[in-house]
Amino acid sequence: MLSDPVKLSFVQDPDDLWLSGRKLAVSFHVAGDTGPMTWHAKALTTSYVSAPGSGSRGAETGEASFPYSTTSWYFLDAIDMQVAPATHAVVAFGDSITDGTASTLNGDDRWPDVFARRMHAAFGDRFSVVNAGIGGNMVIGPADYAQHPFAGGPAALERLERDVISLPGVSAVIWLEGINDFGNAGASVDAVEAGVRQGVQRLRARLPGVRIIMATLTSSLHSTNEQYGSPEVESKRQADGRWLLLNMLDDTRHFAPTCRALDLTDLLDDPRFADTAARAEHRVALHDRLGDAIAGRPLAELRRRLDAKDTIVSALASPLEVIEDPQVLANGYFAAHPTRPSVRLATAPMQFDDEQTVVRRPAPETGEHTDEVLGELGYPADEITALRALGAVA
Q: pLDDT (tens digit, 9 = 90+) per residue, 245-282?
């Protein structure tokens, strides 16, 4: 149900600094039987309620007519505001961590609240942060929400249209979700990842150019809720899909320390892996055991374990990790752009006599050498001008 537009009588000048950072109070009166009420259980903001049958009291400013209080919001789902055309909406999409469970009553200290204040401080009114978190929400479950509704609401994939895509001006989505799929529903990492990928594809298809930021799931290890606090859920949370390279140039030296680092000491007594030839013959079985031991641990733990045993190990780096790698920086594999120093370019892949490679010039700009090339081909200046006017050349 949509309300007619409401003109705020106290707003005379939209740029009035007196209005900046103020909270908006909404009063409404329900006549007759409401039927089932929609609500935001974890609004965590005190609202005041009049007595049943007392009639409309929205115009009153005193407290006598509002003897009851609540920290939930009822009926009201959202408020649409008329803003400047260039205003962008950033949607915080997720579960109770985004919704604000256990945040301070009347404190407005959910992470989207803090983020909104930081955005406002940096960019003024150019961005608006919309909180679309629902406590208990999951990425892919429950499958039968329509038949058996539960407090966590429909799956993120089911509510994506309603809570994100249909909103005006959405330019970015910060998505923090998945821990309830693991802790409440026992979903697999592959299933949740597939759900997230499907959601991202839909967002990109429906909101061209939207920026999507997947936030890191926070830990629930040792939670008093046994389902969430288990090592199994923690392992799923930390699954990162990274590839690990174990370099065993001398496997007679490195095989035993690697097995000890990964708690695979039983392999040291297994005749199938007794020496280099045996390990080569049974390489598939060995790969499977090593793979299972690696897949069940986060990258940081694997690095710590393997480094402690003096093994040669490295994770396949992401592009962002490559440009910050200490060895890459020390060897000068990247150099500053000649005209844009904040941009780094890859240098020549070879170095001679420790001579530092440099980037002498950037790649040509579009059309930078058009006149020169066409002139060398015999085109006079007036013909080149005519070709450029026709759009035949840049």
A: 888 888 889 999 999 999 999 999 999 999 999 999 99
- Give one DSSP letter per residue of 99-110, joined into a string: HTTTPPTTT--S
Contact 251, 236 (CB under 8 A): no
Tell which residue, 98, 91, 108, 90, has the closest CA to residue 178.
98
Phi, psi of 314 (to 5 degrees): -155, 145
Indicate whether 109 and 233 sit together in one domain: yes
Q: Do 109 and 172 fall into the same domain?
A: yes
Residue 69 bridge partners (DSSP): 48
The answer for residues whose C-beta is within 8 angstroms of residue 168's C-beta and 6 or more apart is 80, 89
Give me the half-sphere count of Cα atoms (radius 13 Å) on the Cβ side of residue 273: 20
Tell me how far CA of residue 313 lies from CA of 78, 144, 170, 203, 295, in angstroms: 52, 45, 43, 37, 15
Structure tokens at 6: 């409401």
Q: In terms of DSSP bridges, do strands 88-94 and 127-133 run parallel, antiparallel, or are they unpaired?
A: parallel
> 103 near 44, Cβ under 8 Å?
yes
Q: What is the pLDDT of residue 170?
A: 97
pTM above 0.90, yes or no: no
> Considering just the CA atoms, what is the radius of gyration of the chain in Å?
30
Q: Does residue 372 form part of some domain?
A: no
Q: By CB neighbour count within 10 A (0-12 exposed, 13-18 middle, 19+ buried), where does 328 fall?
A: middle
Contact 157, 140 (CB under 8 A): yes
Q: Among 238, 259, 292, where does a domain finish?
A: 238
How many domains is the chain built from? 2
Say how far apart CA 393 and CA 374 lie, in whole Å: 10
Query: Tokens 């001679």, residue?
Result: 352
**Hey, what are 204's tokens?**
């990109």
Which single residue is written with the structure tokens 């809720």? 225
